């Protein structure tokens, strides 16, 4: 079955930070793993360039929203490159093809009778580009997310009859208990639906920066309607001369942060129903990366710079760290100290050292050829079912769980080296067969964990597999004993070298 995975499209009002990198990394792990299974994969990411947040940020800089979009879309593309992300397309909502398709779908929603003219009055947050209900506001009429004071806004707009989709949405949730995961987010979205849905203003009269409403060019389509449609429009023009919609729609999984749950789990399926388009199979929500107690965000000024970290330590280390440190789906703290600790103890010591020791022993005791033997029963038992376990975790988008399954085996192999002491076996000719078995089991174990780790840490896993003389990345090969001995090992160098961090500047 085709597999279509998306990230949210990122606002271009600022530079990318680790929070954005997080979703993109997670989506890349899913896409790479599915390719290992031999699935037909399409992976989309991109930028959200219209609307109020971008207009306001551009005004502050004294440039046009278009200029700001051009400047920052490049940065988001660079981030994907820096992180070794294998997206099949990068959408920008300013793409003319996207804009034309948005107009078409919105016209369809209108023609199907789900749009009317009305007046909106309510608390409006320009940063969220969203109206807030009385109960959402914090003391002093503050936006609960941006902590800025909000004002009541009034506008004549076109409205989408979201309220009439309450029942169809409740049905969707009843029929598809896996539509939103994890469960607590499913419950949250469902109770939001059950509490009663209000119609949604579908256009903005005050703004010029957006897709014009096709039947009323004095207004532009609300940025969220425009943005959500990216998941659908991209397929129609991502490949020149080809329309991928039939092949990949409905999307298999939309990956999003918890702050945009309502848009993806309520408004988006309702919009699609209104347009007569199939709803996605699944929406998966992750938590926030926190620095201290706060959400990492540009406006709060507390960010870990992904370009810098990837530059110093390599993309793999960053990809590993965010998925290992914070249980995917929950909020969790990250910190430069935490990063360095995991880099040293887990990457350099547990994985890197295991790799270099194993290769060195095969070099020294067996002239650089992986011996041919049966895998050690004890190790085989501990690796039994590993590939299936990782497979299941990925299906359930439990990325931290999948990574942990693999890491437990890396720890197991380290214990195996300690227990078996191959350097002692090497001293005794009578133990030659046993040494063959131990070295073969280590090489096989390393090979299997590296194939499974590949989606998480592609460069390191590939380097190690090349050094082991085995480059098959397919999930089928991720079984202990699937590959026999006989390979000639190569040079590895240090997978995770010590890094001298630059002195913080005096300023
Ligand atoms: N443009 C909208 C999404 C439109 S999708 C049709 C948007 N953009 S965003 O740039 O503000 O955020 C994009 C994603 O990054 C969200 O899923 C958000 O949760 C995520 N993150 C931003 N900061 C984050 C953290 N500190 N931690 C984890 N993810 C967070 O919303």
Q: Can I get a quick summary?
A:
This protein has helices at residues 18-36, 52-61, 65-82, 96-111, 166-175, 183-194, 223-228, 230-237, 245-248, 261-275, 306-313, 315-325, 336-366, 377-383, 386-395, 399-420, 422-425, 432-453, 458-467, and strands at residues 3-11, 41-48, 89-92, 115-125, 130-132, 151-160, 180-181, 200-201, 203-204, 212-213, 216-221, 253-257, 283-286, 289-291, 294-295, 332-333. With 507 residues, it is an alpha/beta fold.
What is the beta-strand fraction? 5-15%
Give the overall silhouette: elongated
Q: Give the termini separation.
A: 55 Å
CATH architecture assignment name of the largest domain: 3-Layer(aba) Sandwich
Number of strands: 16
CATH topology of the largest domain: Rossmann fold
Classified by CATH, the class of the largest domain is Alpha Beta
* Bound molecule types: 5'-O-[(L-methionyl)-sulphamoyl]adenosine
Question: pLDDT average, as an integer?
Answer: 94
- Count of folded domains: 2
Instruction: Please give the count of helices.
Output: 19
- Fourth CATH level, the homologous superfamily of the largest domain: HUPs
Structural class: alpha/beta
CA-atom Rg in angstroms: 26 Å
Unreliable stretches covering 5 or more consecutive residues: none
Secondary structure: helix percent: 40-55%
Question: Overview of this structure, please?
Answer:
The chain is an alpha/beta fold and 507 residues long. The protein folds into two domains: 3-308, Rossmann fold (3-Layer(aba) Sandwich), CATH 3.40.50.620; 336-477, Isoleucyl-tRNA Synthetase, Domain 1 (Orthogonal Bundle), CATH 1.10.730. Helix content is 48%, strand content 15%. It has 19 helices and 16 strands. The strands form four sheets. It has a six-stranded parallel sheet with strand order 3-2-1-12-13-7, sandwiched between helices. Helix 18 runs antiparallel to helix 19 (458-467). The longest helix is centred in the last third of the chain and has 31 residues, at 336-366. The site of 5'-O-[(L-methionyl)-sulphamoyl]adenosine (MSP) has 21 residues, from strand 1, helix 1, helix 7 and strand 12.
């Amino acid at each position: 079955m085709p597999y279509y995975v998306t990230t949210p499209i990122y606002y271009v009002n600022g530079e990318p930070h680790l929070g954005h990198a997080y979703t993109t990394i997670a989506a890349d792990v899913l896409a790479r793993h599915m390719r290992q299974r031999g699935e037909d994969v399409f992976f989309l990411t991109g930028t959200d360039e219209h609307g109020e947040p971008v207009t306001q940020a551009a005004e502050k800089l004294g440039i046009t929203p278009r200029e700001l979009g051009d400047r920052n879309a490049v940065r988001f593309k660079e981030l994907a490159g820096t992180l070794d992300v294998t997206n099949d397309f990068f959408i920008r909502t300013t793409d003319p093809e996207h804009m034309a398709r948005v107009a078409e779908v919105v016209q369809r929603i209108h023609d199907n009778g789900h749009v009317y003219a009305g007046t909106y009055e309510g608390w409006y947050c320009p940063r969220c580009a969203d109206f807030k209900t009385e109960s959402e506001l914090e003391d002093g009429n503050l936006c609960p997310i941006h902590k800025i004071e909000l004002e009541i806004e009034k506008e004549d707009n076109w409205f989408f009859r979201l309220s009439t989709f309450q029942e169809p949405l409740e049905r969707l949730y009843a029929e598809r208990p896996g539509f939103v995961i994890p469960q607590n987010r499913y419950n949250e979205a469902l109770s939001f639906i059950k509490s009663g849905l209000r119609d949604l203003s579908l256009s903005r009269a005050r703004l010029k920066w957006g897709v014009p409403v096709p039947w009323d060019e004095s207004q532009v389509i609300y940025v969220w309607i425009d943005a959500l449609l990216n998941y659908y429009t991209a397929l129609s023009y991502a490949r020149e001369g080809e329309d991928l919609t039939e092949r990949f729609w409905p999307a298999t999984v939309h990956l999003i942060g918890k702050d945009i749950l309502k848009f993806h789990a309520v408004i988006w399926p309702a919009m699609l129903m209104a347009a007569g388009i199939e709803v996605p199979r699944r929406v998966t929500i992750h938590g926030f990366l926190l620095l201290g107690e706060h959400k990492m965000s540009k406006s709060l000024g507390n960010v870990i710079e992904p370009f810098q970290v990837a530059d110093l330590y390599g993309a793999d280390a960053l990809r590993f760290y965010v998925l290992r440190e914070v249980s995917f789906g929950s909020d969790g703290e990250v910190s430069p100290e935490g990063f360095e600790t995991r880099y040293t103890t887990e990457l350099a010591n547990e994985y890197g050292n295991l790799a270099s020791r194993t290769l060195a022993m095969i070099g020294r005791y067996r002239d650089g050829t992986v011996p041919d033997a049966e895998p050690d029963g004890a190790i085989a038992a501990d690796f039994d079912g590993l590939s299936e376990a990782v497979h299941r975790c990925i299906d359930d988008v439990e990325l931290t769980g999948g990574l942990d399954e693999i890491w437990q085996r890396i720890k197991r192999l380290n214990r195996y080296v300690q227990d078996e002491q191959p350097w002692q076996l090497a001293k005794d000719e009578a133990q030659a067969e046993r040494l063959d078995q131990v070295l073969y089991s280590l090489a096989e174990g390393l090979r299997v964990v590296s194939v499974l780790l590949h989606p998480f840490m592609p460069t390191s896993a590939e380097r190690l597999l090349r050094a082991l003389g085995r480059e098959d990345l397919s999930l089928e090969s991720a079984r202990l004993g699937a590959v026999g001995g006989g390979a000639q090992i190569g040079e590895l160098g240090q997978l995770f070298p010590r890094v001298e961090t630059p002195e913080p500047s005096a300023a």
